Amino acid sequence: MSILMILSHTPIWVFLILALGLFLGIRGFFTREAKVATIFILPVVFIGLSLSSLLSIGLGIAMVDTVYVLGLALGVTLGWYFLTPVPQSINKSKSSLTIRGSAFILVIFMINFGLKYWFGVTSGITPQLAHTPLVLVTVFGLAGIFTGITIGRNVRLLQYFRRAASPALPLNAQLVEAEK
């Protein structure tokens, strides 16, 4: 099957998710002020992608569900403890955090999106390959990890926001003290 045929059979919503992910990822390269209400867009997108894949193979496959949940737990732990940037400042009155720019969002989105797209295409072309235990464990384990990372990272950012004492304050010393 040719790439053009694969792309022509791809639903429009997949390209919209890709565009959203590219937008969020490119925006993530720059130091930015992020509203607290919007920091959960990426985790919601990842949860949606995961659920669409889980529903396509059917929830209730114990191995897949277990691996996904374990991946989710590992990802939340990684996101919380190792992959959350300390906000440069927090502005309580504007409900926002200033976050240092990095390639993190773009990289994690593109890996997750590529994995999901590959799984969807493979499920359509050769379902017997896509539904082997090794492929299912790999795809859903990684999906759980990536989704968990975005959840853990953003819940930690929310915690930084909630712990901030002053309306507009650099966090250098304050966050170090708050974590003791």
Describe the protein's architecture and organization:
The chain has 180 residues and is α+β, with helices and mostly antiparallel strands. It is built from 8 helices and 4 strands, in the order H-H-E-H-H-E-E-H-H-H-E-H. The protein starts with a helix and ends with a helix. It is globular and about 55 Å long. The protein has one domain. It has a 4-stranded antiparallel beta sheet, covered by helices on one side.
Strand order of the largest sheet: 1-3-2-4
> Alpha-carbon distance between the termini?
57 Å
- Shape, please? globular
Number of helices: 8
**Structural class given helices, strands, pairing?**
alpha+beta
What fraction strand? 5-15%
Q: Whole-number radius of gyration? A: 18 Å
Provide the residue-averaged pLDDT. 88
The main pleated sheet reads as:
4 strands, antiparallel
What is the subunit organization of this protein? Answer: single chain
How many separate structural domains?
A: 1
Q: How helical, in percent, are the residues?
A: 55-70%
| SS elements, strand count | 4
SSE order in H/E notation? HHEHHEEHHHEH
| Low-confidence regions | none
